[in-house]
Design goal:
Radius of gyration: 20 Å
Keywords: Membrane, Repeat, Signal, Transmembrane, Transmembrane helix
Number of strands: 4
Number of domains: 1
GO molecular function, one term: catalytic activity
CATH topology: Glycosyltransferase
Strand order of the largest sheet: 1-4
Organism: Streptomyces griseofuscus
Protein name: Prenyltransferase alpha-alpha toroid domain-containing protein
Largest sheet: 2 strands, antiparallel
Pfam family, one: Prenyltrans
Shape: globular
CATH class: Mainly Alpha
Length: about 400
């Protein structure tokens, strides 16, 4: 879902167009880390290991799979003693210290993944407690503890809170909730980019529309995380004026902005340095989820149709996070991820790491060990699940440039 990454560091490892979270300014870890067993993908995990693993596990659970134990164990092994996560720790057996660059985005993503897989309540609780402890006074979160709040980081934390059953509105610092923070980044309808959300104010306090931040803010304002399905229709098709917008108004106004942004071509345009007339596949996938969650079905399906036609090569080059994003987009609009432009997102994702099992097959195995196997029934269930899956948020590279 929604994070940022140091552009120079990403360029150094060739993933500026990939789905990877961001790091704050500061010393960059070595981009030469090897890929450990249990982790999905083959690219250097230094900057996105926890993020891409978390998205993968969430997508697999959404598809009805039980992720492989090795994959889940790798993620749990990345957690620091205080509950936080860094983007990647090459030596997880070593204790985290002041030099460990923990961040809210990796932590919030891991919360959603570990909650989805089940059986990790203690780890999830510690991570959520850590996130609450680093909330800023404006009610939001920045990428690193103590950094200024931004829409993307605040939104991925809201998703983690919502996924675990917490009410984001009740998580407050100095009396302010994350929804208060989102409201301050929502651009009034009568201004340029009205309805959109900014990533954060510039040095002069001005807000500039950012499609990436808007997609993140819409899902967060609706109390959703990485996984969302089509919601009820918005109260208004166009931006509706409001002094201090409610979460619902933030979502509807942001949804109106996104619907207009994809109305002509079905996709967002990349704002990465050097990009010329290049579609932004990752943020378009996030936009599909946001539009569907806000009940803008036609716009969501149009954007998904573009992805189905054009995003396959991007996903193949980018790796597990991209496949997971597309799966979550498919889920949001009720599409079939097993037939995505003639390829299977499901097969492509699962081939990049430890093989998961369908939940029905895993349950069958458990029953068989108790002497109560019903092979014919479970075979039928498995066939129905595979045939009927309709599946589908972050990650794509986030750039501070406004779009």
């Amino acid at each position: 879902m929604n994070v940022r990454r140091n552009a120079a560091a990403l360029a150094a490892i060739g993933v500026l167009a990939a789905a990877a979270p961001a790091v704050a300014a500061g010393p960059s870890p070595s981009p030469k880390a090897s890929v450990p067993a249990g982790l999905y993908g083959t690219s250097d995990p230094t900057y996105d290991g926890v993020w891409r693993q978390s998205l993968t596990l969430v997508a697999q659970r959404t598809l009805g799979y039980r992720p492989a134990t090795a994959a889940v164990d790798w993620l749990t092994g990345q957690q620091c003693a205080n509950g936080s996560f860094a983007a990647f720790r090459a030596t997880p057996a070593a204790s985290c210290d002041a030099k460990t660059m923990v961040d809210t985005n990796s932590t919030a993503a891991a919360v959603q993944a570990l909650h989805a897989t089940g059986g990790h309540d203690a780890a999830v609780t510690k991570a959520v407690d850590w996130l609450k402890s680093v909330q800023n006074k404006d009610g939001g979160w920045g990428y690193n503890p103590g950094s200024p709040s931004d829409t993307n980081s605040t939104s991925v934390v809201v998703g983690a809170l919502a996924a675990t059953g917490a009410d984001p509105a009740g998580v407050r610092k100095d009396g302010k909730s994350p929804y208060d923070a989102l409201a301050t980044w929502s651009i009034p309808c009568d201004q340029d980019g009205g309805g959109a959300l900014a990533y954060q104010p510039d040095k002069k306090g001005k807000l500039a529309a950012n499609a990436d931040a808007t997609a993140a803010g819409v899902t967060a304002a609706l109390g959703k995380g990485f996984v969302a399905r089509t919601g009820k229709a918005p109260a208004a098709d166009a931006c509706a004026k409001a002094g201090h917008p409610t979460p619902a108004q933030i979502a509807d106004n942001g949804g109106a902005y996104l619907a207009a942004a994809v109305a002509k071509s079905g996709h967002l345009m990349s704002v990465m340095p050097g990009a010329t007339d290049q579609p932004d596949y990752g943020n378009t996938a996030d936009t599909v989820v946001a539009l569907a969650a806000d009940g803008r079905t036609a716009a969501a399906k149009k954007a998904y149709a573009f992805l189905e036609k054009s995003a396959g090569p991007w996903a193949a080059q980018t790796g597990p996070a991209a496949y997971a994003q597309l799966i979550l987009a498919a889920h949001a609009v009720g599409a079939q991820p097993g037939d995505f432009g003639g390829t299977s997102l499901v097969t492509s994702l699962n081939a990049l790491g430890p093989e998961p099992r369908m939940q029905a097959a895993a349950d069958k195995h458990a029953k068989a060990s108790d002497g109560s196997s019903h092979a014919g029934v479970w075979w039928s269930v498995g066939i129905c699940l595979v045939a009927g899956i309709g599946i589908g948020f972050l990650l794509s590279t986030r750039k501070k440039q406004q779009s």
